[in-house]
């Protein structure tokens, strides 16, 4: 079965987060970078789990977790941007995570509606 748009985008985003994490580690930032790495890569992991879900309810639960992880990732990116604790540009990642949030929100909403 071919990958869905959200699978592709969340995987690509995870790679972007890994690169950003590495850049932050080089600048000796270890706390925020670790939080960002965890939440940013968790989005795609939950999307993958949802794709193999045993039921619609399971699918919905995993997609909702992915949505919440995307929201958390946005929070960490905003903290990094506004604290200026490291010299990195996170504008592209913020744009990307906002797109993921919109897609995941739509998936969750559509799935919930189809279950009622």
From TrEMBL:
Spans through the membrane:
none
- Annotated InterPro entries: 23S_rRNA-intervening_sequence, 23S_rRNA_IVS_sf
Cited Gene3D superfamilies: 23S rRNA-intervening sequence (1.20.1440.60)
Q: Which PANTHER family match?
A: FOUR HELIX BUNDLE PROTEIN (PTHR38471:SF2)
NCBIfam families, per database record: four helix bundle protein
Protein name per its UniProtKB record: Four helix bundle protein
């Amino acid at each position: 079965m071919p990958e869905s748009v959200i699978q592709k985008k969340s995987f690509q985003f995870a790679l972007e987060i890994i690169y950003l994490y590495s850049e932050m580690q080089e600048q000796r930032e270890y706390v925020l970078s670790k939080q960002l790495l965890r939440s940013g890569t968790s989005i795609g992991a939950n999307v993958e789990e949802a794709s193999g879900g045993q039921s619609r309810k399971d699918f919905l639960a995993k997609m909702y977790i992915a949505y919440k992880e995307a929201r958390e990732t946005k929070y960490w990116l905003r903290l990094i941007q506004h604290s200026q604790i490291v010299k990195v540009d996170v504008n592209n990642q913020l744009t990307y995570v906002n797109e993921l949030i919109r897609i995941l929100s739509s998936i969750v909403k559509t799935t919930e509606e189809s279950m009622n």
